[in-house]
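quick one, 74 residues, struct below
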Amino acid sequence: MSIPADDALVCSARGCRAAAVWALEWNNPRLHDAARRKTWLACDEHRTSLGDFLDARGFLRAVTEVPGSPTLDT
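---
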């Protein structure tokens, strides 16, 4: 998946303009069927805080790397 520079994915944290490295997939079971997933994007700095917010509410379903982003293992 190639993303043009002007369409680069950015972190979903308020005020953050860093490149997204993580995709946090979630849903609200009261509103969405089990198969539906919404996505928040996160930079390395905000991955934990956004994930903790979703997890505390029982919404977090998966965390995956954004295709084409650098990995933490480099």
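The mean pLDDT is 86.
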